[in-house]
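Annotated sample (chain length 489).
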Amino acid sequence: MMPEKSKNFWFWFVVVIILTAITRFYKVKEPDHVCWDETHFGKMGSWYINRTFFFDVHPPLGKMLIGLSGKLTGYNGTYPFEKPGDKYNGTRYEGMRIFCTTLGSLIIPMAFDTVHDLTKSTEAALISASYLIFDVGMITLNQYILLDPLLLFFMVGSVWGMVKVTKCTILRNSYSTQWWFWLFLTGTMLACTISVKFVGLFVVLLVGLNTIHQLWIILGDIEISAVESLKQLICRAIALIIWPIFLYMVFFYIHLQVLNRSGNGDGFYSSAFQSRLIGNSLYNASMPEKVAFGSIVTLKNHKTGGGYLHSHYHLYPKGAGARQQQITTYTHKDENNKWIIKPYKVDEYKKVKMLKNGDLIRLMHFSTKRNLHSHNEPAPITKKHLQVTGYGESGMGDTNDVWKIIIPGGKDNETLLTVTTKFTLIHFLQNCALTSSGKQLPKWGFEQAEVSCNLNVRDTNAFWNFEDNINEKRELIYTRNLTLKKSIP
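Output written by the structure step:
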């Protein structure tokens, strides 16, 4: 058993808790307007409550917890959180602030106990806690709807559990209920840390190095058998590696199950994924399954976070290749993502002709009536690639507008299907593959992603699929839901 704490420790521990509560919860509801990054995380909490899908660079746990705290305290998820300074005007925001403040407040007593275990000095623990209690920056971070108090809570909890496990091991108290509790608490806190922000990987590194140090000491102790050393290794691997990975996946599973309605983050994900979101244009869509010449389509890049093939009336500036119309990828759904599939020779569609593997086509931008084009000019950012532009007038261009559509591993004359068929577009004259480099264009390109033509036709970023597919020919229109469901793993 671990030694009991002294009465002096518990007295100062209670004092620390009282001071923490006073400094953190004083005027926690003020000001009654959106402050700082509450505009981001309050909005994301609303999206969880409304089950609206969105994209964010951070893992989901912190925002899910903020949304859950709001839901449990009466917030209905309707406040827009548009900009700092907007009045809440009766919105039940208080629960989310108090939740974040509560987790931020728990950092102090955990830090007090951690320092006491490390130093066996109540005075050192009190000084350390005082630095945190009266730190204005910490107080500010704690009192608002932010990810920082949640992140710091889980980080400090990880270190707290790590110190407790080390103490139990030193006291030869391994495999006790207490030891297992602290070991799995540490693993849980690690999982929660990296599930709030990826910067939590630094505390994973700290706990990992400490664990390696402990195992090295155990391995070097001649009184401990090799079997015992192996047991210690296996137990830590289960609690500090396998368990956190499992929890991390569970958090993402919950995230994907909760956010089942279409939102502004749809375009960052694949067409097949979007077809699962209620309200998305692909959900229960009734459109042609097979792609035909004359169809109005959108093309989605298969690169992770890849966008839609996009164009607009603006030209490339001087020094960025030929001064022709810009071609980019754009991650949001937009009218400028639409293209018309045309045969490379004839512009008439007397009969419905399906698009097949190996066909030569032209892609005409629906809004500007210029063709997808490439030529022997370097791309604006990736100079090893060729420039891709919009060229021609009213669909009339030249032979540099011709592309060959190839289904990797596909059969000859295989028909292309919406969503499910992955293909490449190979330029007929330059023999390069249409690709999204993922590099961001400057402000003249509206910071959208560069599209180029790679002479390496095996480029993994050169895969596309058709998403929207509009065709006025009645014989083509039928529901393709069953095909979609079969195609989604």
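Annotation: Confidence is low (pLDDT under 50) at residues 477-489.
Annotation: The radius of gyration is 29 Å.
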